[in-house]
Design brief:
mainly beta, 5-stranded antiparallel β-sheet, 1 helix
């Protein structure tokens, strides 16, 4: 009887709702593919509503010999790269940044380089109901070929794998198997794209381009164990 009374009190205090949707589908994804970008480059981005949010910003650039990415911020908050900055053939560079618990509403994402660049590919999107404590794994790669690709580290069936790539090819890229495009586009001399994949598909992220320099980065995002209020998902 005591157990039944306790269960009734729990459900009265925390009515049962549908489990939150773990997703990296962002209808408000923002992209920049342009020549002679301003430095710093300011981009308006609206974070989608929801719990346990992680915003990603993929940044690729061309013709910035010796140039690095000095900072990426969202609403004045520093975005962090858990992946490693890649630079290829003294012509192409990039990285993939993230911010846990990004500011709500519309805020500026500001990309600052250490010097001038000729072309830039920038894609910004958000995953909802993600684990904010840790990623399953991250990885990066670079090379010169027709197939930018990277294999994520540890991947579990319930995860979502996201990637960002940039290359020194102006043709339209083709996304790899079992990947859904978040966004892709081209400048006069480069292209870039972001996509996601279900963890059950194994975590191999790839694109097809004309043979050229490329960089690619991936995060394996885990589903949230609880909402921002600390309640288990079955209470949501």
């Amino acid at each position: 009887m005591l157990l039944i009374a306790w269960l009734l009190s729990v459900f009265l205090l925390f009515p049962l709702q549908a489990q939150a949707a773990f997703t990296c589908v962002d209808a408000g994804t923002v992209e920049v593919h342009e020549s002679s970008p301003a430095n710093p480059r300011t981009i308006s981005y609206t974070t989608p509503a929801g719990n346990n949010r992680i915003t990603f910003a993929g940044v690729g650039f061309r013709n910035g010999v010796g140039v690095t990415i000095s900072s990426v911020t969202q609403g004045g908050n520093a975005m962090t790269a858990d992946t490693t900055f890649q630079y290829v053939s003294t012509i192409l560079g990039g990285n993939l940044y993230r911010l846990r618990n990004p500011p709500s509403g519309t805020n500026d994402v500001v990309v600052t380089w250490s010097g001038a660049v000729s072309q830039a590919d920038i894609i910004i999107w958000t995953c909802l109901d993600s684990d904010l404590t840790e990623f399953r794994s991250t990885n990066q790669a670079s090379g010169v070929s027709t197939t930018p690709s990277v294999t994520a580290g540890t991947v579990a069936a319930g995860d979502i794998v996201v990637d960002f790539f940039s290359s020194d090819d102006a043709g339209a890229p083709s996304v790899g198997a079992n990947q859904t495009v978040i966004h892709e586009g081209t400048t006069a001399s480069t292209n870039g794209g972001a996509s996601y994949q279900a963890g059950a598909d194994g975590g191999v992220m790839s694109w097809t381009i004309a043979s050229d320099d490329w960089v690619i980065f991936t995060y394996v995002v885990k589903p949230a164990a609880s909402d921002e209020g600390g309640q288990p998902l079955w209470f949501q």
